[in-house]
Amino acid sequence: MKSGLTLGIETSCDETAAAVIKDGREILSNVVLSQIDIHQKYGGVVPEIASRHHIESIFPVIHEALQQAEVTLADLEVIAVTYGPGLVGSLLVGVGAAKALAFAAQKPLVGVNHIEGHIYANFLTGKEIKPPLVCLTVSGGHTDLLLIPRLGEYEILGRTRDDAAGEAFDKVARVLGLPYPGGPQIEKLARAGDMEAIHFPRGLTDGDTFDFSFSGLKTAALNYLNEMGQKKQEVPLADFAASFQWAIIDVLTQKLMAAAEQYEVDSVILSGGVAANQTFREHVQAEAESRGKELLYPPVHLCTDNAAMIGSAGYFRYLAGQRSDHALNAVANLRLGDA
User: Fold this and answer.
1) pTM of the model
2) Where are the alpha helices (DSSP H) in 46-137?
3) Is residue 77 within 8 Å of 316, Cβ to Cβ?
4) Domain of residue 206, CATH code
5) 133-138 sheet: strands from edge to edge
6) Residue-level pLDDT at 102
Protein backbone atom coordinates (compact mmCIF):
# COMPACT_ATOMS: atom_id res chain seq x y z
CA MET A 1 0.00 0.00 0.00
CA LYS A 2 1.57 3.31 -1.13
CA SER A 3 -0.24 5.81 1.06
CA GLY A 4 2.87 7.74 2.04
CA LEU A 5 1.68 7.64 5.65
CA THR A 6 4.17 6.95 8.43
CA LEU A 7 3.41 6.42 12.10
CA GLY A 8 6.34 7.77 14.11
CA ILE A 9 6.91 6.71 17.73
CA GLU A 10 9.35 8.39 20.12
CA THR A 11 10.11 7.38 23.76
CA SER A 12 13.85 7.95 24.13
CA CYS A 13 13.66 9.99 27.34
CA ASP A 14 10.67 11.51 29.14
CA GLU A 15 8.26 12.38 26.30
CA THR A 16 5.78 9.80 25.07
CA ALA A 17 5.12 10.84 21.48
CA ALA A 18 3.39 9.60 18.34
CA ALA A 19 2.79 11.31 15.00
CA VAL A 20 1.41 10.61 11.56
CA ILE A 21 3.46 12.06 8.68
CA LYS A 22 2.57 12.12 4.99
CA ASP A 23 5.34 11.70 2.42
CA GLY A 24 7.96 12.45 5.06
CA ARG A 25 7.22 16.19 5.07
CA GLU A 26 3.60 16.91 6.07
CA ILE A 27 2.49 16.62 9.70
CA LEU A 28 -1.03 15.20 10.01
CA SER A 29 -0.76 14.80 13.78
CA ASN A 30 1.96 15.20 16.39
CA VAL A 31 1.03 14.19 19.93
CA VAL A 32 3.57 14.71 22.73
CA LEU A 33 2.83 13.77 26.33
CA SER A 34 5.52 15.37 28.48
CA GLN A 35 6.63 14.13 31.89
CA ILE A 36 8.29 17.41 32.91
CA ASP A 37 5.88 18.01 35.77
CA ILE A 38 6.57 14.52 37.12
CA HIS A 39 10.37 14.84 37.05
CA GLN A 40 10.67 18.46 38.17
CA LYS A 41 10.50 17.49 41.84
CA TYR A 42 13.63 15.34 41.34
CA GLY A 43 15.57 18.00 39.41
CA GLY A 44 15.96 15.72 36.38
CA VAL A 45 14.68 12.60 34.67
CA VAL A 46 14.43 9.45 36.81
CA PRO A 47 14.77 6.56 34.30
CA GLU A 48 12.58 4.03 36.13
CA ILE A 49 9.77 6.54 36.59
CA ALA A 50 10.05 7.62 32.96
CA SER A 51 9.71 4.09 31.60
CA ARG A 52 6.78 3.34 33.89
CA HIS A 53 4.86 6.34 32.59
CA HIS A 54 5.71 5.41 28.98
CA ILE A 55 4.11 2.02 29.56
CA GLU A 56 0.91 3.68 30.82
CA SER A 57 0.77 6.27 28.04
CA ILE A 58 2.15 4.75 24.85
CA PHE A 59 -1.00 3.23 23.34
CA PRO A 60 -3.35 6.09 24.33
CA VAL A 61 -0.89 8.53 22.70
CA ILE A 62 -0.67 6.41 19.53
CA HIS A 63 -4.47 6.16 19.44
CA GLU A 64 -4.76 9.95 19.76
CA ALA A 65 -2.24 10.50 16.94
CA LEU A 66 -4.18 8.20 14.60
CA GLN A 67 -7.47 9.86 15.54
CA GLN A 68 -6.17 13.38 14.98
CA ALA A 69 -4.81 12.36 11.56
CA GLU A 70 -8.12 10.60 10.77
CA VAL A 71 -6.36 7.41 9.72
CA THR A 72 -6.25 3.81 10.88
CA LEU A 73 -3.41 1.33 11.19
CA ALA A 74 -4.54 -0.19 7.90
CA ASP A 75 -3.97 3.15 6.15
CA LEU A 76 -0.31 3.32 7.13
CA GLU A 77 2.54 2.50 4.79
CA VAL A 78 5.26 2.15 7.42
CA ILE A 79 5.87 2.38 11.17
CA ALA A 80 9.01 4.15 12.41
CA VAL A 81 10.36 4.15 15.95
CA THR A 82 13.33 5.53 17.87
CA TYR A 83 15.57 2.65 18.98
CA GLY A 84 18.48 4.71 20.33
CA PRO A 85 20.24 6.54 21.78
CA GLY A 86 18.44 7.25 25.02
CA LEU A 87 17.31 5.68 28.28
CA VAL A 88 17.11 1.96 27.61
CA GLY A 89 13.95 1.39 29.66
CA SER A 90 12.17 4.20 27.87
CA LEU A 91 13.38 3.09 24.44
CA LEU A 92 12.17 -0.45 25.03
CA VAL A 93 8.59 0.74 25.53
CA GLY A 94 8.47 2.48 22.16
CA VAL A 95 10.29 -0.30 20.33
CA GLY A 96 8.00 -2.93 21.84
CA ALA A 97 4.88 -1.01 20.89
CA ALA A 98 6.10 -0.40 17.34
CA LYS A 99 7.00 -4.05 16.80
CA ALA A 100 3.63 -5.19 18.13
CA LEU A 101 1.72 -2.82 15.84
CA ALA A 102 3.88 -3.65 12.81
CA PHE A 103 3.33 -7.37 13.39
CA ALA A 104 -0.40 -7.04 13.99
CA ALA A 105 -1.01 -4.74 11.01
CA GLN A 106 1.57 -6.43 8.76
CA LYS A 107 3.37 -3.14 8.10
CA PRO A 108 7.10 -2.55 7.47
CA LEU A 109 9.09 -1.43 10.52
CA VAL A 110 11.99 1.05 10.44
CA GLY A 111 14.22 1.77 13.42
CA VAL A 112 15.41 5.40 13.59
CA ASN A 113 18.40 6.95 15.31
CA HIS A 114 17.10 9.69 17.61
CA ILE A 115 19.85 12.12 16.49
CA GLU A 116 18.95 11.57 12.85
CA GLY A 117 15.35 12.30 13.82
CA HIS A 118 16.37 15.71 15.14
CA ILE A 119 18.09 16.44 11.82
CA TYR A 120 14.97 15.50 9.86
CA ALA A 121 12.85 17.93 11.90
CA ASN A 122 14.21 20.42 9.35
CA PHE A 123 12.36 18.53 6.59
CA LEU A 124 9.02 19.37 8.21
CA THR A 125 9.34 23.13 7.71
CA GLY A 126 8.38 23.18 4.04
CA LYS A 127 11.86 24.36 3.03
CA GLU A 128 13.96 22.42 0.55
CA ILE A 129 17.04 20.81 2.10
CA LYS A 130 19.95 20.35 -0.29
CA PRO A 131 23.19 18.58 0.74
CA PRO A 132 26.04 19.01 1.25
CA LEU A 133 25.32 20.50 4.68
CA VAL A 134 27.01 21.02 7.99
CA CYS A 135 24.67 20.25 10.88
CA LEU A 136 25.03 21.05 14.56
CA THR A 137 22.85 18.87 16.79
CA VAL A 138 22.71 20.19 20.35
CA SER A 139 20.58 18.73 23.12
CA GLY A 140 20.65 17.59 26.73
CA GLY A 141 22.53 14.44 25.83
CA HIS A 142 24.34 15.25 22.60
CA THR A 143 26.53 17.87 20.96
CA ASP A 144 27.46 16.61 17.49
CA LEU A 145 28.89 18.51 14.53
CA LEU A 146 28.20 16.63 11.30
CA LEU A 147 28.95 16.86 7.61
CA ILE A 148 26.05 15.56 5.52
CA PRO A 149 27.39 14.95 1.99
CA ARG A 150 24.19 13.17 0.90
CA LEU A 151 20.89 12.54 2.66
CA GLY A 152 21.23 9.64 5.09
CA GLU A 153 25.05 9.83 5.13
CA TYR A 154 26.92 11.42 8.04
CA GLU A 155 30.54 12.22 8.71
CA ILE A 156 31.21 13.04 12.36
CA LEU A 157 33.36 16.17 12.45
CA GLY A 158 33.23 16.68 16.20
CA ARG A 159 31.51 15.54 19.39
CA THR A 160 31.53 16.57 23.00
CA ARG A 161 34.27 14.85 24.98
CA ASP A 162 32.34 15.21 28.25
CA ASP A 163 29.15 17.11 29.04
CA ALA A 164 26.74 17.97 26.25
CA ALA A 165 25.79 21.65 25.97
CA GLY A 166 22.23 21.02 27.17
CA GLU A 167 23.54 18.93 30.04
CA ALA A 168 25.75 21.82 31.17
CA PHE A 169 22.74 24.14 31.09
CA ASP A 170 20.67 21.72 33.18
CA LYS A 171 23.38 21.00 35.76
CA VAL A 172 24.14 24.66 36.42
CA ALA A 173 20.44 25.50 36.52
CA ARG A 174 19.92 22.79 39.15
CA VAL A 175 22.60 24.34 41.37
CA LEU A 176 20.85 27.70 40.99
CA GLY A 177 17.62 26.06 42.16
CA LEU A 178 15.88 26.62 38.83
CA PRO A 179 13.14 24.21 37.69
CA TYR A 180 13.87 21.36 35.29
CA PRO A 181 14.55 21.62 32.35
CA GLY A 182 17.18 24.22 33.11
CA GLY A 183 18.13 25.50 29.66
CA PRO A 184 14.96 27.57 29.05
CA GLN A 185 15.19 28.93 32.62
CA ILE A 186 18.75 30.17 32.09
CA GLU A 187 17.78 31.65 28.73
CA LYS A 188 14.92 33.54 30.41
CA LEU A 189 17.23 34.95 33.10
CA ALA A 190 19.88 35.85 30.54
CA ARG A 191 17.61 38.24 28.67
CA ALA A 192 18.11 40.87 31.37
CA GLY A 193 21.84 40.22 31.81
CA ASP A 194 25.18 41.35 30.43
CA MET A 195 26.89 38.50 28.60
CA GLU A 196 30.29 40.16 29.06
CA ALA A 197 29.90 40.65 32.83
CA ILE A 198 31.70 37.43 33.82
CA HIS A 199 34.38 35.72 31.76
CA PHE A 200 33.98 31.96 31.59
CA PRO A 201 36.44 29.62 29.81
CA ARG A 202 35.85 28.22 26.32
CA GLY A 203 36.96 24.61 26.01
CA LEU A 204 38.91 23.24 23.04
CA THR A 205 39.09 26.52 21.13
CA ASP A 206 42.88 26.79 20.80
CA GLY A 207 43.51 23.82 18.50
CA ASP A 208 42.10 22.69 15.16
CA THR A 209 39.61 20.17 16.57
CA PHE A 210 35.87 20.33 16.01
CA ASP A 211 35.27 18.49 19.30
CA PHE A 212 33.58 20.21 22.22
CA SER A 213 34.16 20.25 25.98
CA PHE A 214 31.82 21.90 28.47
CA SER A 215 32.95 20.31 31.75
CA GLY A 216 35.53 23.04 32.36
CA LEU A 217 32.90 25.72 31.80
CA LYS A 218 30.51 23.95 34.16
CA THR A 219 33.22 23.67 36.84
CA ALA A 220 34.15 27.35 36.44
CA ALA A 221 30.51 28.37 36.81
CA LEU A 222 30.07 26.25 39.95
CA ASN A 223 33.32 27.61 41.40
CA TYR A 224 32.08 31.15 40.81
CA LEU A 225 28.85 30.41 42.67
CA ASN A 226 30.77 28.80 45.56
CA GLU A 227 33.15 31.77 45.82
CA MET A 228 30.27 34.22 45.89
CA GLY A 229 28.65 32.15 48.63
CA GLN A 230 31.84 32.04 50.70
CA LYS A 231 32.16 35.82 50.39
CA LYS A 232 28.47 36.13 51.32
CA GLN A 233 27.93 38.19 48.18
CA GLU A 234 24.73 38.13 46.17
CA VAL A 235 25.05 36.43 42.78
CA PRO A 236 24.01 38.74 39.90
CA LEU A 237 21.77 36.05 38.44
CA ALA A 238 20.94 37.75 35.14
CA ASP A 239 24.60 38.57 34.40
CA PHE A 240 25.67 35.08 35.50
CA ALA A 241 23.08 33.42 33.24
CA ALA A 242 23.90 35.66 30.27
CA SER A 243 27.67 35.13 30.61
CA PHE A 244 27.32 31.37 31.07
CA GLN A 245 24.93 31.06 28.13
CA TRP A 246 27.21 33.17 25.94
CA ALA A 247 30.22 30.95 26.72
CA ILE A 248 28.28 28.00 25.26
CA ILE A 249 26.79 29.85 22.29
CA ASP A 250 30.14 31.40 21.37
CA VAL A 251 31.91 28.03 21.12
CA LEU A 252 29.04 26.31 19.28
CA THR A 253 28.85 29.08 16.70
CA GLN A 254 32.60 29.34 16.19
CA LYS A 255 32.95 25.64 15.42
CA LEU A 256 29.84 25.47 13.24
CA MET A 257 31.03 28.38 11.09
CA ALA A 258 34.60 27.05 10.92
CA ALA A 259 33.30 23.70 9.66
CA ALA A 260 31.06 25.38 7.09
CA GLU A 261 34.04 27.34 5.76
CA GLN A 262 36.42 24.38 5.76
CA TYR A 263 34.02 22.07 3.93
CA GLU A 264 32.77 24.84 1.62
CA VAL A 265 29.05 24.23 2.16
CA ASP A 266 26.39 26.82 1.36
CA SER A 267 23.93 25.79 4.07
CA VAL A 268 24.13 24.98 7.76
CA ILE A 269 21.36 23.50 9.89
CA LEU A 270 20.61 23.36 13.59
CA SER A 271 18.74 20.63 15.43
CA GLY A 272 18.05 19.46 18.97
CA GLY A 273 16.56 21.09 22.04
CA VAL A 274 19.23 23.77 22.47
CA ALA A 275 18.44 24.95 18.92
CA ALA A 276 15.23 26.39 20.40
CA ASN A 277 17.33 29.00 22.25
CA GLN A 278 16.45 32.33 20.63
CA THR A 279 19.77 34.03 21.44
CA PHE A 280 21.63 31.10 19.88
CA ARG A 281 19.49 31.24 16.72
CA GLU A 282 19.98 34.98 16.33
CA HIS A 283 23.74 34.80 16.78
CA VAL A 284 24.17 31.91 14.34
CA GLN A 285 21.90 33.69 11.87
CA ALA A 286 24.04 36.83 11.98
CA GLU A 287 27.28 34.85 11.60
CA ALA A 288 25.87 32.78 8.73
CA GLU A 289 24.65 35.87 6.87
CA SER A 290 28.03 37.57 7.26
CA ARG A 291 29.60 34.59 5.48
CA GLY A 292 26.94 34.21 2.79
CA LYS A 293 25.62 30.96 4.27
CA GLU A 294 22.00 29.86 4.52
CA LEU A 295 20.83 28.86 8.02
CA LEU A 296 17.98 26.40 8.52
CA TYR A 297 16.40 25.31 11.79
CA PRO A 298 13.06 23.80 12.86
CA PRO A 299 10.31 25.69 14.69
CA VAL A 300 10.69 25.58 18.46
CA HIS A 301 8.12 22.82 18.99
CA LEU A 302 10.06 20.52 16.65
CA CYS A 303 13.45 21.18 18.30
CA THR A 304 12.55 19.25 21.44
CA ASP A 305 11.76 15.52 21.38
CA ASN A 306 8.77 14.63 19.22
CA ALA A 307 7.58 11.83 16.96
CA ALA A 308 7.05 13.89 13.80
CA MET A 309 10.82 14.03 13.27
CA ILE A 310 11.03 10.25 13.75
CA GLY A 311 8.25 9.72 11.22
CA SER A 312 10.05 11.91 8.68
CA ALA A 313 13.43 10.23 9.13
CA GLY A 314 11.81 6.80 9.09
CA TYR A 315 9.93 7.48 5.88
CA PHE A 316 13.06 8.55 4.00
CA ARG A 317 14.93 5.53 5.39
CA TYR A 318 12.04 3.37 4.14
CA LEU A 319 12.22 4.93 0.65
CA ALA A 320 15.95 4.15 0.64
CA GLY A 321 15.12 0.47 1.16
CA GLN A 322 15.83 0.18 4.89
CA ARG A 323 13.72 -2.23 6.91
CA SER A 324 14.05 -3.48 10.49
CA ASP A 325 13.06 -6.99 11.46
CA HIS A 326 11.22 -7.98 14.61
CA ALA A 327 14.49 -8.60 16.42
CA LEU A 328 14.95 -4.80 16.59
CA ASN A 329 16.15 -3.87 20.07
CA ALA A 330 16.85 -0.71 22.02
CA VAL A 331 20.46 0.55 21.86
CA ALA A 332 21.06 3.13 24.59
CA ASN A 333 24.44 4.31 23.24
CA LEU A 334 23.59 4.18 19.52
CA ARG A 335 25.64 6.52 17.34
CA LEU A 336 24.99 7.84 13.85
CA GLY A 337 26.33 5.40 11.33
CA ASP A 338 25.75 2.36 13.54
CA ALA A 339 23.65 -0.34 11.92
Assistant:
1) 0.92
2) 47-69, 88-105, 114-120
3) no
4) 3.30.420.40
5) 155-159, 143-148, 133-138, 267-271, 294-296
6) 98
